[in-house]
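[job 4471] stage=fold_predict status=RUNNING
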Amino acid sequence: MLSIKESFLAMRIFLDKYYFRTKSFDIGGLLGDTILFGGNETADPAAWEDWISSAEKYIKEFDNIDICKAYIIMMDFLKEYGLRVNSNEVALLVSEMKLVKDSESKNKRYWNEWLESIKALNNGDLI
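[job 4471] inference complete, writing structure tokens
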């Protein structure tokens, strides 16, 4: 189970891996926007607010978020970001991340990388 901040950090780890593999300009920009300074203050203050808005669509409590819900929140956050910046790259990523059933994404690589991101977070491997 993850807190809202832990799920956000796991998303950053996931996106960091994706960025270094693809060099996606739009994901690189998002990573810059989502750098955390101190508590919950992001480089772009709207990024944290957008994360909370995505989370509120799927959960009522911001503690004890299961990894599947956190993944869904991440997909929603990315979908909204992609629409806002008009990014085909992000839209393609979200379409490949889509869950076909619980804990199985259309492209299994993304679910596995999500699990690796959670493990890295639990090991203290933050970016």
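[job 4471] summary: The two ends are 20 Å apart (CA to CA).
[job 4471] exit 0
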